[in-house]
Amino acid sequence: MREADLLDPLPVLPPVAPRLPEWLRHPEPRGFRPKRRYRAVWISDIHLGTSGCNAELLTDFLRTIECETLYLVGDIIDGWRLKKGWFWPDAHNEVLRRILKMAHRGTRVVFIAGNHDEMLRDYTGLTFGGVELVDEAVHITADGRRLLVVHGDAFDTVVVHARWLALLGDKAYELLLKINTVLNRARRALGLPYWSLSAYLKRKVKNAVLYVGKFEEAVARVARQRGFAGVVCGHIHCAEIRTIGEVTYYNDGDWVESCTALAEDAEGQIAIIDWLAHHRAELANGLKAEVEAAA
Question: Dihedral, CA atoms, 174, 240, 213, 113, nearest 10 degrees?
Fold first, then answer.
C-alpha cells in the first residue's frame, strides 16, 4: 500500500436520521368533531398502570384538542402500583402514543414528575421523545401572568413526613378503585355512564374536605411568597379554580375519578374541562337521537 493512500482522508458519510416509529407518521383519522384549540392544557394524575385509570376517556379527550403547550403535571405513570405487579393494557399504550404524536407534531410537552412517578425525578433536565422532564415549570399566560406549575406532593404533609401512612392510604384507595371498577362494569352492562365511588365518598367525608382546603392554602401561600400570580397543580384529585388572597389556585383534577383538565384560551382565561360530564352529555344526546329516530 502506498504511503499516499494511508494519508487520504476517510470518506465523510451523510448523517443518518433517527428512525421514527411508523405510527408517528400515520395521518390523523378524519373525525366528525372539530378540534378545540388552546394555548395550554394541563392534565395530571392519570395513573397509567392501574385498573382505575380512565385511559380510553383521556385518549378521546386528547384526540379532540390542539395546544401550543401540554403540561403533564405528575403521577402520569403509577410506579408504586407497577412495583407490586404489572398491569398495562393497550389502552395505556394509546395514551403514550397520543402524547408522543402531539410532541412530534409541534406541541411543547412538559412533564413534571409526581410522587407516584418519582423514579423519573433523577432524569429531570432531559428530553425523551420530545417530552421535557422537569421538577417544576413556569407558565406565562396570554395576559402576562406568571404561574408556577408543580405536582403538589411537596405540600402534602402526609407524603413528606409520613410516607408509610401515605402508602397505607394508597392501599385503601386501591381497594376503593377495585370496587369502583366492578361497580362500573355493572353500570356499563345496564347502559349507565361512568360514576366514581371514591370521588363521591371524598366529597362526603368532612376530614377530606378540610385536608383539601389546607392543601390549597399551603400551595397558594408558597406561590405568593415566590412572587407568582397563580399556581397550577394536581395531586389531590380535586379540580378547582379559586382565588386565595392575591393568588389564583388552579388544580387540574385527575383521570381516575373526575376526568378533568385545565385549558387556557387565546386571551389567557383558564377553565376546567369536565370530560366525564361531556361524555355523559354525548351519551344522553345519542340516546335521545335514537329514540327520536325510532319514533
Answer: 50
Strand locations in the chain, DSSP E? 36-43, 65-72, 108-112, 127-128, 131-134, 137-140, 146-149, 230-233, 240-244, 247-251, 260-264, 270-274
- According to the model, what pLDDT value does residue 288 have? 58
List all residues 6 or more positions away from 287 whose beta carbon is below 8 Å from its beta carbon: none
Q: How far apart are CA 146 and CA 138, in angstroms?
A: 7
Fold for the domain defined by 35-276: Purple Acid Phosphatase; chain A, domain 2 (3.60.21)
Task: Tell me the domain boundaries of the chain.
Answer: 35-276
Rounded CA-CA distance 249/243 in Å is 6
Q: What is the DSSP letter of 44?
A: -
Average pLDDT, the chain: 82
Helical ranges in 85-162 per DSSP H:
90-104, 157-161
- Residue position matching grid coordinates 394509546: 94
Contacts of 110 (CB under 8 A, 6+ apart): 69, 70, 71, 72, 131, 132, 134, 137, 149
Rounded to 5°, the CA angle 39-43-46 comes to 155
Which residues fall within 8 angstroms of residue 142, CB to CB, at 6 or more apart?
A: 39, 264, 265, 266, 267, 268
Query: Residues near 112 by Cβ (< 8 Å), separated by ≥ 6?
Result: 71, 72, 73, 74, 134, 135, 136, 137, 149, 150, 151
Higher pLDDT, 145 or 166: 145
Helices and strands in the chain: count of H runs, count of E runs: 10, 12
Note the pTM of the prediction, 2 decimals.
0.76
